[in-house]
Amino acid sequence: MAKTGTASLTIAELREFASFSACEQRFIERGLDIGLGRGDAFKAWGVAGDKAAIRSQYLAYRELRLLAGSVPCETSLDGLEAFMGPLMRVTAQDLALEQLESFSAYRFLYERLFGARVRPWLPAAFCAAAALPQIRPGQRKVLLQSLSEAAATAPGWSDREPCFFPERVEAEPA
């Protein structure tokens, strides 16, 4: 029974990833490569991507390990400032690159970078970062409108860890 549930969850995650734009998919794969230390992103993404953006992601994602270990309890304000400030800064940097077009794509990436414990904090970090003046007004509107009422007001979040971690597949030379 557990295998069936895991298989169903994996299929749902695959479908969700497939629903993202090609740009979002590439950004998620690159973000996971950088955030999870899955190789040299400059070699893997340098040709197709902007090396300055990759460098800025490497610098921003240095905080991820520390943040992952300091996710506060969702029922307490203890540790809130130390967690939300850096999370919002990393989020704002990712959103400013204009490769994530929706809350769903952002949530998909950050759940994999931090694990299930971060879910309750993602709508707040996303809204705060998307509303910053560093985000172009048109992009700000698109991002904020992508957050559904259900996601913004969820009474609870699953503690089930993500199963599917997309990786870039190299095309075979013709």
Give an account of the 3D structure.
By secondary structure, the protein is mostly helical. It has one domain. Helix 2 packs parallel to helix 7, helix 4 runs antiparallel to helix 6 and helix 6 packs across helix 8. The radius of gyration is 16 Å and the shape is globular.
Strand content: under 5%
The total domain count is: 1
How many strands appear in the DSSP assignment? 0
Distance between the termini: 43 Å
- The level of helicity is 55-70%
The secondary-structure element order is HHHHHHHHHH
Arithmetic mean of pLDDT: 88
Number of helix segments?
10
In short:
The protein has 174 residues and is an all-alpha fold.
Keywords:
single chain
Secondary structure: elements and pairs:
Layout (H helix, E strand, L loop, with lengths): L1 H18 L2 H14 L5 H5 L5 H11 L2 H5 L11 H17 L6 H12 L7 H9 L6 H9 L3 H4 L22
